[in-house]
Amino acid sequence: MPVPKLLILGGTSEASALATEVLARSGGRVDVVSSFAGRVEGLRPPPGKIRIGGFGGVDGLVSYMKKESVDLLVDATHPFAHRMSRNAREAADRAGVPFLVLWRPPWPRHPLDRWIEVDGIEAAAQALVHLGRRVWLTVGAGELAPFAKIPGRWFLVRLIEAKAPLPLADHLVIEGRGPFPLETERALIRHHRINVLVSKASGGDATYAKIEAAREADLPVVMVRRPLPEPGERVESVAQAVDWIAARL
């Protein structure tokens, strides 16, 4: 009897935990493939098989799943990877493969949080017009251009890896991958005299300390709302995803 195959679209801590739990619970009787769309430097690879690189859109993912006889597809990508999630749902529908979204819960808003919630990076940049001049940017490297249009600002930019010059005139780049301790975030705010934070509403524990530190410092936070999840079956924990997989295999 062929071994059932699970394809996990990953790159997140939840995806790695899911691969680990499925293999442990099944005793290795599930062929688990974790797919990473982009850079994996510094990531601890999950157990099972690893695939790196895009599929070539919906058609490519359908072709891959048919060729590799994928039985189940789980989207455990970052909450802001909306294009990949949309492609995954459409490909699963076309290939007739059961599809699950592992949806990381959003951060709850504390009564003392000073969030300015916006839709999109352009709106986040425009929100800075009426806010502080020393800005901590925690968005992706490819999303910085709109902030270059806002004059008179100094930016602290934290990236997983900085490979190319940034479009910002006055800035400092620091590199790092979460989780980040709360004291580290407090120290960054103090040392660089930050008076506004820009963040995506990513959820999860790895980067929540910056939100706590901003709250303690009474800083405004420009919070980019996350896209809505794809329609269909959805769970919010690795344990629930493991149960969903077990029920179908």
Strand order of the largest sheet: 3-2-1-4-5-12
Q: Fraction of residues in helices?
A: 25-40%
Tally of extended strands? 12
Average pLDDT figure? 93
Shape category: elongated
CATH topology name of the largest domain, in short, is: Rossmann fold
Q: Please give the radius of gyration in angstroms.
A: 20 Å
Category by helix and strand content:
alpha/beta
Question: Can you walk me through this structure?
Answer:
- 32% of the residues lie in helices and 22% in strands.
- The protein has 249 residues and is of the alpha/beta class.
- It has two domains: 5-104 and 228-248, Rossmann fold (3-Layer(aba) Sandwich), CATH 3.40.50; 114-224, Rossmann fold, CATH 3.40.50.
- The strands form two sheets. A six-stranded parallel β-sheet has the order 3-2-1-4-5-12, with helices on both faces. A six-stranded parallel β-sheet has the order 6-11-10-7-8-9.
- The radius of gyration is 20 Å and the shape is elongated.
